[in-house]
């Protein structure tokens, strides 16, 4: 019976990380949360380039544990196209605190975040029909006070 519990727990852990998306740490940013403690899930994408279908919504779930107390969070999101950062309108520069949940993903927490307490950032954004079909790199960062990077990841994507 004890070995059965161990097997079930092991399979549960594998299932939790099976849906994780393979993302890269931001090359020019030093974040407070190391990328190996950062679990990101992008809807319908486990490995880049993620296909972002126009006229749909894409969801992002990011689990992380802050290394220190954080009073405020701002979302910085842009598409890197030919070395030019093009902000995602409606997402870039918005308050990330409104999208912070407890580790269960259901209980809304908001800010401030406490050091050592795991949280989930849940966000959804539209892929507008006006976006051109192209390849790009999505830069997604949560910033604290004074533009301090809390978490940051990049993932190749393709608007289809």
List the helices and strands and how they pair.
Elements: H1 2-18, E1 24-25, E2 39-42, E3 50-52, E4 56-64, E5 74-81, E6 84-87, E7 100-102, E8 119-127, E9 134-143, E10 149-159
Parallel strand pairs: 3-10
Antiparallel strand pairs: 1-10, 2-4, 4-8, 5-6, 5-9, 7-8, 9-10
What does this structure look like?
Residues 1-18 have low confidence and may be disordered. The chain is mainly β. The protein contains 1 helix and 10 strands. The strands form 2 sheets. Strands 1, 3, 5, 6, 9 and 10 form a 6-stranded mixed sheet that branches. A 4-stranded antiparallel sheet has the order 2-4-8-7, with no helix packed on it. It has one domain (21-159): Immunoglobulin-like (Sandwich), CATH 2.60.40.770. The chain starts with a helix and ends with a strand. It is globular, with a radius of gyration of 16 Å. Helix content is 11%, strand content 39%.
What percentage of the residues does DSSP assign to strands (E)? 35-45%
Tell me the distance between the termini: 49 Å
Question: Judging from the principal axes of the Cα atoms, what is the shape?
Answer: globular
Task: Kindly identify the CATH topology.
Answer: Immunoglobulin-like
* Domain unit count: 1
């Amino acid at each position: 019976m004890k070995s059965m519990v161990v097997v079930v727990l092991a399979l549960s852990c594998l299932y939790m990380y099976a849906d994780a998306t393979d993302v890269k740490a931001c090359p020019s940013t030093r974040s407070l949360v190391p990328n190996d403690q950062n679990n990101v899930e992008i809807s319908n994408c486990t490995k880049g380039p993620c296909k972002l279908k126009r006229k749909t919504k894409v969801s992002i779930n990011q689990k992380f544990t802050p290394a220190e107390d954080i009073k405020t969070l701002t979302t910085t999101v842009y598409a890197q196209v030919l070395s030019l950062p093009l902000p995602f309108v409606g997402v870039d520069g918005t308050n990330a605190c409104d999208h912070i949940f407890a580790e269960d993903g259901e209980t809304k927490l908001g800010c401030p975040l406490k050091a050592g307490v795991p949280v989930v950032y849940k966000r959804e954004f539209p892929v507008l029909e006006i976006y051109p079909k192209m390849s790009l790199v999505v830069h997604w960062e949560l910033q604290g006070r004074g533009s301090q990077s809390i978490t940051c990841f990049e993932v190749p994507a393709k608007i289809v």
